[in-house]
Amino acid sequence: MGGDNKVVLLTGAAGGIGRAAALKFAAQGAALALTDIDDAGLEETARLAGEAGAEVWTHRCDITAEADVAALVSGAVSRFGRLDIAVNNAGLAHRPARITDLDLDTFQRMLAVNLTGTFLCLRAEAAVMRAQGYGAILNVASLAGLVGAPLLGAYAAAKHGVVGLTKTAAAECARSSVRVNALCPSFADTGMVAGIAAGMRGGEHEAISRLLTGIPMGRLASPGEVADAIVWITSDANSFMTGQAVAIDGGASAV
Q: Under CATH, which number does the domain 7-186+222-238 receive?
């Protein structure tokens, strides 16, 4: 469906949701341009995707660095000749803290990676796709980009910015047949979520148990479930959706 003969650029590919998405696209026949700053994790994802039959190109990229992002996108186009799908998944969270206890360095780091990094990737990808006259971009935001996120204020601020950036880019790119959407997962069974929970009262397991009380389905998402949504949203079967921030949250935003 989503990956058939497509060229897919994916950031944050070293593990978690990024790796799961890379393998979903690989299984559907996509060629992959993968990036991360975790060299070992990136190499492992590339190996697994290659074993699934995908042609894979990797490039280490710090998405907060404009020159790195330019080299990533131009390198992917040089390697594969075009860019059909881009998934801006790279991001990070901070240790839980009330806004009154957040330091400026943490706040600025969240904006630099989660918002500015997404902007730099989106800008470069959209330029290529507008020139082509087609393409699909997906920014992986968060449920924290749609609602408040107590103890994750800096992260929430950045992810709200990603949603606003997504909607604006979608409006600007629609006439060029370039779709831009955001996916907003709640807590998934990933290392990042485990790290957040470990910094909360009672430790990881107790904190996750508390988090689950706010999710009607009563469990975390699997990375594969989020990856399935990524593949569908960017697929040709979803050709009339743009400018949307889609929650995948086990019902958390419904209550």
A: 3.40.50.720
